[in-house]
Design goal:
about 70 residues, 3 helices, mainly alpha
Length: about 70
């Protein structure tokens, strides 16, 4: 599933499944951290492409601090 999300750019969906991957012991912690980083970068790229740098700034301000 993770490869399908990566190929299609479904970054939010990828972020959603990472906790389940951890519970099911899919991949190691380093692999999941790499996927999470890739997903966040992908999301930021999508927002920037759709809304420009101002849109990216606004999106970032709306993210939780733990992001």
């Amino acid at each position: 599933a993770e490869q399908a999300y990566i190929r299609t750019g479904a970054w939010s969906s990828l972020l959603d499944i990472i906790p389940s991957m951890a519970k099911a012991h899919v991949g190691d912690e380093e692999h999941r951290a790499m996927l999470e980083q890739q997903a966040w970068v992908g999301l930021m790229d999508q927002v920037r492409a759709d809304q420009g740098s101002e849109g990216l700034r606004a999106w970032w301000k709306n993210q939780s601090r733990k992001t």
